[in-house]
Structures are given as C-alpha cells and as structure tokens.
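Assemble and predict.
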Amino acid sequence: MDRELNESEARYKGILHQSIEPIIFFDPSTRKIIEANKAFCKLIGIAQKESNALQLFDFIEGNRQEINMFIREVMISERGQVSNATWKKKSGQLVEVELSSTKVRLKGKDIVSIMARDVTVLKKIERLKEKERQEYFAAIVEAQEDERNRIACELHDSLGQMLSAASYKIENTLLSSVVILENKKLLKSTRNIQKILDTAIEEVRNISQDLMPMMLRDFGLGAALRHLCAQARDQGVLDISYRNYISDLRMEKKVERIVYRIAQEAINNVFKHSKAKKATLSIKNKDGKIILRVKDNGIGYDLLAKRKKRGMGLITMEERTKSLKGSLKCRSRVGEGTQVLMSFELEGR
Ligand SMILES: Nc1ncnc2c1ncn2[C@@H]1O[C@H](COP(=O)(O)OP(=O)(O)O)[C@@H](O)[C@H]1O
Ligand SMILES: [Mg+2]
C-alpha cells in the first residue's frame, strides 16, 4: 500500500518536473505552494527556492473570496476544472493564463494541482482581432447608412419633385383645357394618369422615408421615434405607446441613426414574432446615459436556445450597440413578453 502511494507520488512529481508548462501543487487549506516546477518559476519570475514561500494570494489576481470559491469548486469536482485567470509576476506585470486544475492525492492528503498555459499574447491578438472586426463592421454600416441617405435625398428631392411637377402640370392643363374637360373619355384617362402619378409620389416618399427617415435628419431622434411608433400604430394591430424623456435633444448624426435602427429592428421583431397586443418604446437620458427600451407583452422566447442560433437582427443590434461602447440586454421568457434594453454613455464613447 505504502509502495503504491509512493509510486503515485513519484509519478505526479515526475510529471510536474518534466512538464514544459507551468505546474504547481498547493495545499487547499493553507493555500501554500507545496511544489512548483521550473516553468512556473520562470513564468512568475522567481527562483525555484522562493516558490515554497508563496501563497496563492501572492500571485493570483482577484479577491480572496473568488480564489477560495475556485478552490472549493476544484475540491468537489471529480473531473477537475478549466478556467481563466490573471496571475501577477514578481515584477508586478500581469499574465493571462488558462488553468486546468484537479484534486490529487499526495502523502495521504488531498491537494490541488494547477497546470497553467500562458495565453497573454493569444488573448491580446484575440482582442485586437475583435476590435478590428468591430471597426470593420461599424465602417460598413456607416457606409451603408451614408449611401441610404444619399439615395433617400435623391429620390425625395429629384424624382419626387419631378413627379410632383408633372402632377401639378396635368392639373393645370385639365383646368385650362376645354377640349379635355368636354371629352369624357379623355378626362377619365387624364384623371387616371394623375392618380398613378399621385401613387408614385406617395411611393417615392415611403421608400425614401424607409431608407432614411427625414424626421431623423430634420428633427432628431425624439421626433423620429415618435413617428416610428405612429407608423406602427397605424397598422392597427399593436397598441404601442411612446415615452420620450429626452425631448428634442440632438446627438451626433451617426449616433442618432444607430439608436433609431436598433429601435426599428426591435419594433420589427415585436411585429414579426411577438403576437403582442401592447408595446412601449421609451427613451431617456439618465445623467448622460441614454437608455432605449422596447417592451412587449407578447409570447416571448427562450433566450438560451436563441443564444446558440441568433438571427441577423439580434446580431446587428449587438454590433451597433458595441460601436457606441454601450450595452444591449434582451430579457424574455416564453409566455412573458420581451424587453430590449439598450444603453450607452453620450460622452466618452
Ligand atoms: N419581441 C419578440 N417576441 C418574440 N420573439 C422574438 C422577439 N424578438 C426576437 N424574437 C425571437 O428571436 C429570434 C431572432 O430575432 P432576430 O435576430 O431579429 O431575427 P429575425 O427577426 O430575422 O428572425 C426571432 O426569430 C424570434 O424567434
Ligand atoms: Mg428581426
């Protein structure tokens, strides 16, 4: 029995000292290091003999409560734990590590072994890539919005004006042409042309409004959101109320557009998926923090199931929020309605 124990101990120690990855054994009751390998000492920047004097709290960043909780979890788990942590070198420099921790039996006592992998560089690259991806997304969205804006203005100012002029001319011609007025057939077909023109004018207005709400450009977010709700209400299936606590506050054009698009997508989702009878859209300014909330009393959905398979709408809302360094929270439960809460700081973005 003793021999077996000694053999397993020797095996553990062998693994520890041969590993090129940092490994430590520590006592979970005193939190002191029992044994550490060269790789660990090199990572932390200490001499091998200094390692025995080390306690976990000396080099693991985070409060004691968190560290104690981590130890407890390792001690009760059969398969060990994989986690991320930040360690502090003797020099004070921080390293990010991926840990694989297990309970092992050494000298008849349960102790903890931690194998670490230095992922500082990897994490830095990941963060850079994520930042690059976000910037790329923001640039595409902005270019798309600029293009929409351009087309909306062209449609409204150029095509819209021409159609209005044509409609006006026909009206004038009708009034001044006795020939047309006296010829029923000609009069009817001229009236028809006029109707088609008026429908086209309306259509141009709707398309251009959809591309870039003039309200947003001319009167700002508060007014544009009011209009969005009014449009939604006009469809006659949803009682949507609007609470504007920002009055006619103007923000940077880009910011207004982002918030508007998020509200638009959230309302579209209420229409498309919620089967709600009632909804509220509110926007407020709490000490420089803008908070947009869209809430419905519809069928709701399973957030966990959707997290794995999100639609483009939710992804785009999240990306847009990130570009304002804000936060987006969706709360929903099947049968209990849905709430989308988006917030960001006006200054210091
Ligand atoms: N207000 C809502 N009420 C109920 N379900 C919703 C609501 N908003 C989103 N969902 C659910 O979340 C899914 C993802 O939404 P989204 O990313 O906008 O994609 P899409 O609208 O294109 O389906 C929807 O398919 C729907 O199942
Ligand atoms: Mg959607």
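The radius of gyration is 33 Å.
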